[in-house]
Design brief:
By secondary structure, this protein is an alpha+beta fold. It is built from 3 helices and 8 strands; from the N terminus they run βαβββαβαβββ.
Protein backbone atom coordinates (compact mmCIF):
# COMPACT_ATOMS: atom_id res chain seq x y z
CA UNK A 1 0.00 0.00 0.00
CA UNK A 2 1.49 3.28 -1.09
CA UNK A 3 1.02 6.14 1.37
CA UNK A 4 1.53 9.87 1.08
CA UNK A 5 2.65 11.47 4.36
CA UNK A 6 1.93 15.09 5.25
CA UNK A 7 2.93 17.17 8.27
CA UNK A 8 1.14 20.49 8.66
CA UNK A 9 0.37 23.14 11.24
CA UNK A 10 -3.34 23.54 11.98
CA UNK A 11 -3.67 26.71 9.90
CA UNK A 12 -2.12 24.95 6.89
CA UNK A 13 -4.76 22.20 6.83
CA UNK A 14 -7.43 22.45 4.17
CA UNK A 15 -11.08 22.19 5.17
CA UNK A 16 -11.18 18.72 3.61
CA UNK A 17 -8.07 17.57 5.52
CA UNK A 18 -9.45 18.88 8.81
CA UNK A 19 -12.78 17.17 8.14
CA UNK A 20 -11.05 13.84 7.34
CA UNK A 21 -8.99 14.08 10.56
CA UNK A 22 -12.06 14.67 12.72
CA UNK A 23 -13.95 11.95 10.82
CA UNK A 24 -11.24 9.32 11.47
CA UNK A 25 -10.84 10.30 15.12
CA UNK A 26 -14.61 10.10 15.63
CA UNK A 27 -14.90 6.75 13.83
CA UNK A 28 -12.25 5.14 16.04
CA UNK A 29 -12.33 6.94 19.38
CA UNK A 30 -16.08 7.52 19.66
CA UNK A 31 -17.77 4.82 17.55
CA UNK A 32 -15.34 1.84 17.63
CA UNK A 33 -14.31 2.35 21.25
CA UNK A 34 -17.87 3.23 22.24
CA UNK A 35 -16.63 6.24 24.17
CA UNK A 36 -18.47 9.53 24.30
CA UNK A 37 -15.83 12.17 25.02
CA UNK A 38 -14.87 15.69 23.99
CA UNK A 39 -12.38 14.98 21.19
CA UNK A 40 -12.21 18.59 20.04
CA UNK A 41 -10.31 20.08 22.97
CA UNK A 42 -8.65 23.30 21.74
CA UNK A 43 -5.25 21.58 21.35
CA UNK A 44 -5.62 21.03 17.60
CA UNK A 45 -4.88 24.69 16.86
CA UNK A 46 -1.54 24.50 18.71
CA UNK A 47 -0.53 21.18 17.10
CA UNK A 48 1.24 19.82 14.07
CA UNK A 49 -0.79 17.16 12.27
CA UNK A 50 0.91 14.09 10.81
CA UNK A 51 -1.28 12.31 8.28
CA UNK A 52 -0.92 9.19 6.16
CA UNK A 53 -3.05 9.26 3.03
CA UNK A 54 -3.94 6.38 0.73
CA UNK A 55 -5.27 8.09 -2.38
CA UNK A 56 -7.65 10.66 -0.85
CA UNK A 57 -8.43 8.64 2.25
CA UNK A 58 -6.85 9.42 5.63
CA UNK A 59 -5.63 6.09 7.02
CA UNK A 60 -3.41 7.10 9.96
CA UNK A 61 -2.92 10.23 12.05
CA UNK A 62 -1.26 11.81 15.07
CA UNK A 63 -1.09 15.31 16.44
CA UNK A 64 2.21 16.60 17.75
CA UNK A 65 2.20 19.08 20.62
CA UNK A 66 5.09 21.32 21.57
CA UNK A 67 6.56 21.31 25.09
CA UNK A 68 4.31 23.20 27.46
CA UNK A 69 1.05 22.51 25.59
CA UNK A 70 -0.24 19.35 27.31
CA UNK A 71 2.82 18.50 29.40
CA UNK A 72 6.18 20.07 30.21
CA UNK A 73 7.53 17.74 27.53
CA UNK A 74 6.47 17.50 23.88
CA UNK A 75 3.64 15.06 23.26
CA UNK A 76 2.12 12.77 20.65
CA UNK A 77 -1.64 12.49 20.85
CA UNK A 78 -4.72 11.18 19.07
CA UNK A 79 -2.71 8.27 17.63
CA UNK A 80 -5.14 6.54 15.28
CA UNK A 81 -5.26 4.27 12.27
CA UNK A 82 -8.21 3.17 10.19
CA UNK A 83 -9.38 -0.44 10.03
CA UNK A 84 -8.09 -0.84 6.47
CA UNK A 85 -4.43 -0.46 7.50
CA UNK A 86 -4.37 -2.26 10.83
CA UNK A 87 -2.00 -5.22 10.92
CA UNK A 88 0.15 -3.72 8.15
CA UNK A 89 2.74 -1.98 10.40
CA UNK A 90 1.39 1.46 9.48
CA UNK A 91 0.92 2.22 13.19
CA UNK A 92 4.61 1.50 13.79
CA UNK A 93 5.63 3.78 10.93
CA UNK A 94 3.22 6.45 12.15
CA UNK A 95 4.68 6.39 15.66
CA UNK A 96 8.30 6.42 14.45
CA UNK A 97 7.58 9.32 12.11
CA UNK A 98 5.88 11.14 15.01
CA UNK A 99 8.91 10.71 17.28
CA UNK A 100 11.29 11.79 14.52
CA UNK A 101 9.15 14.85 13.71
CA UNK A 102 9.09 15.94 17.36
CA UNK A 103 12.90 15.78 17.48
CA UNK A 104 13.11 17.96 14.36
CA UNK A 105 10.26 20.39 15.11
CA UNK A 106 10.93 21.01 18.79
CA UNK A 107 14.58 20.01 19.22
CA UNK A 108 13.80 17.70 22.12
CA UNK A 109 13.91 14.00 22.79
CA UNK A 110 11.60 14.15 25.82
CA UNK A 111 8.08 13.06 24.83
CA UNK A 112 5.23 12.35 27.26
CA UNK A 113 2.05 10.56 26.29
CA UNK A 114 -1.18 9.43 27.89
CA UNK A 115 -1.46 5.89 26.52
CA UNK A 116 -4.26 3.39 26.64
CA UNK A 117 -3.01 0.63 28.92
CA UNK A 118 -3.49 -2.14 26.37
CA UNK A 119 -0.95 -0.39 24.10
CA UNK A 120 1.81 -0.31 26.74
CA UNK A 121 4.05 -2.89 25.00
CA UNK A 122 3.60 -1.12 21.64
CA UNK A 123 4.88 2.16 23.09
CA UNK A 124 7.64 0.42 25.08
CA UNK A 125 8.97 -0.91 21.77
CA UNK A 126 9.78 2.74 20.89
CA UNK A 127 11.55 3.38 24.21
CA UNK A 128 8.65 4.80 26.22
CA UNK A 129 8.56 3.94 29.93
CA UNK A 130 5.55 3.98 32.24
CA UNK A 131 5.72 6.92 34.68
CA UNK A 132 2.30 6.81 36.35
CA UNK A 133 -0.17 4.48 37.93
CA UNK A 134 -3.12 3.30 35.87
CA UNK A 135 -5.91 5.86 35.73
CA UNK A 136 -9.30 6.02 34.05
CA UNK A 137 -9.83 8.52 31.26
CA UNK A 138 -13.22 8.39 29.58
CA UNK A 139 -13.73 5.01 31.26
CA UNK A 140 -10.64 3.52 29.55
CA UNK A 141 -7.50 2.50 31.48
CA UNK A 142 -4.56 4.78 30.67
CA UNK A 143 -0.99 5.35 31.84
CA UNK A 144 1.44 8.22 31.37
CA UNK A 145 4.60 7.21 29.51
CA UNK A 146 7.85 9.07 28.90
CA UNK A 147 10.39 8.82 26.07
CA UNK A 148 13.70 10.53 26.75
Amino acid sequence: MELRWTLKKFEELTNIEEYKILQLRSAVFVVEQNCAFQDIDDNDQASWHLCAWHNDELVAYTRLLSPGTSYTEASVGRVVSSKIVRGKSIGRELMQRSIDAIHILFGTSAIKIGAQLYLKKFYESFGFKQVSDVYLEDNIEHIKMLHS
